[in-house]
Amino acid sequence: MQGTHTEQTGNFRKAYWSYVEPEEVLNNKRLRWCNIPLKDYHACPKCNSQQISHAQHLRLERTECWNCKAPREQWLYLDELARDLLGTEERIKRIKW
């Protein structure tokens, strides 16, 4: 990921991809990105990747997953995806500053 503009200030910040365990998404209340809890973001269940949109967005700008091009109708919230992945070896790809 090249970078993104923050919604609060409009400043450009460098972002990168990181992996998180499903248990962390469900249990760690401090996991956030842009001051939004990680569990409130949308995620693609096909490739287990966090999307930029979240529950507090009034509109969804993306129509497909940035990674695998799955349509947004298939997306889940990150906490729903984490529950589905509990007990598996799979991890979730998340955006981090």
Can you give a write-up of this model?
With 97 residues, the protein is an alpha+beta fold. It has one domain. The protein is 14% helix and 31% strand. It is built from two helices and nine strands; from the N terminus they run βββαβββββαβ. The strands form four sheets. Strands 7-6-8 form a three-stranded antiparallel beta sheet. Strands 1-2 form a two-stranded antiparallel sheet. Strands 3-9 form a two-stranded antiparallel sheet. Strand 1 (4-5) and strand 2 form a beta hairpin. The longest helix is centred in the last third of the chain and has 8 residues, at 78-85. It is globular.
Layout of strands and helices, then pairs:
Elements: E1 4-5, E2 12-13, E3 16-20, H1 22-27, E4 32-33, E5 36-37, E6 41-44, E7 49-54, E8 76-77, H2 78-85, E9 92-96
Antiparallel strand pairs: 1-2, 3-9, 4-5, 6-7, 6-8
Q: Name the strands of the widest sheet in spatial order.
A: 7-6-8
- Number of contiguous helices: 2
What number of domains? Answer: 1
Q: What is the succession of H and E elements? A: EEEHEEEEEHE
Class from helix and strand fractions: alpha+beta
In percent terms, what proportion of residues is strand? 25-35%
Low-confidence spans: 1-6
User: Roughly what is the average pLDDT, rounded to an integer?
Assistant: 85
**What is the CA-CA span between the terminal residues?**
11 Å
C-alpha Rg, in Å?
Answer: 13 Å
